[in-house]
């Protein structure tokens, strides 16, 4: 029996990724997504500055 029998096989290497050229539509889409992401980050920052929206839920009266 050799040492390689029944053992783990070495995984194949993944092929190298080819760099594809971006056309104007792809560049416009990337720019639009980047702007949307920035707007979302700004909105999150504004929302955290103002504090919580609710003030404690159900208000109870002092009467019984």
Automatic annotation (TrEMBL):
Looking up Pfam families in the UniProt record yields: TMA7
Composition bias, kind Basic and acidic residues: at what positions? 27-45
Renumbered to this chain, region (Disordered) spans 1-64
Q: Which InterPro entries match?
A: TMA7
Write down what this protein is called. Answer: Coiled-coil domain-containing protein 72
